[in-house]
């Protein structure tokens, strides 16, 4: 027994697709491929942009963490608090900054004595843990291993033996500071637009009040801050490449800086268990 229309169906199957049907199928496939490609390209571009931003800001976050850890081990010297905690310095006998190192309109700095274990220094040369540390913002005009011309966050470090010798001889703790990479100075973060250090003390009412720096000594002599606020502002490498001059970097209202600047802030409570100066 034959089913009806069997022969006609077989003829349709043997006939295959018409040219019009093939063209429509190819067109639909091409349209779907273009849509899929556009979605993949957009996703990939967004991922790469996010990666660039993360890479650019990772240094700023790491720098903030390092400053916080070392500041938490601040050890004030009894002889003079001004030598063991210096904020927003001006060029002086105890801190020698080249004229081009930092612009006061965009940069603060902090210098302090910190307890850093010898194993984190050079244990063959250092026999104690009291070191002199500093963080400062400096314009670095020459491209090279440190990147292109930009403001960079530097770390100044004097080992425990060097620090002990300076204290014993009553000589400057912080000197030979420069916008260059050498034994005592190193780049910590790139594309930094601002570094702000704000010390606070407890007033008679128990409230935190901002301490006004006195000349290059930072906090007034023998005044111990109770809390220090650290603020770092950074831009990504792509934005930094578009700032052509130093004046662009120093303009806080520059549209590229305002649109892309990221702010990282932390506060460090200084322990009261440390000896009073």
Describe this structure in words.
- By secondary structure, this protein is of the alpha+beta class.
- The protein has one domain.
- The chain contains seven helices and nine strands, in the order αααββββαββββαααβ.
- The chain has helices spanning 6-15, 19-71, 81-84, 160-168, 237-240, 246-249, 255-260; strands at residues 85-87, 109-115, 130-140, 150-158, 185-189, 192-202, 208-210, 227-234, 262-269.
- A five-stranded antiparallel beta sheet has the order 1-2-3-4-5, sandwiched between helices.
- Strand 6 and strand 7 form a beta hairpin.
- It is elongated.
- 30% of the residues are buried.
- Mean pLDDT is 76; it is low at 96-106 and 273-277.
Shape: elongated
Distance between the termini: 113 Å
Provide the number of structural domains: 1
Q: Which H/E pattern describes the elements?
A: HHHEEEEHEEEEHHHE
Helix content: 25-40%
Strand order of the largest sheet: 1-2-3-4-5
Mean pLDDT: 76
Strands, count? 9
Residue fraction in strands: 15-25%
The computed structural class is alpha+beta
Q: What is the count of DSSP helices, taking H or I runs of 4+ residues?
A: 7
| Biggest sheet architecture | 5 strands, antiparallel
Whole-number radius of gyration? 30 Å
Low-confidence stretches: 96-106, 273-277
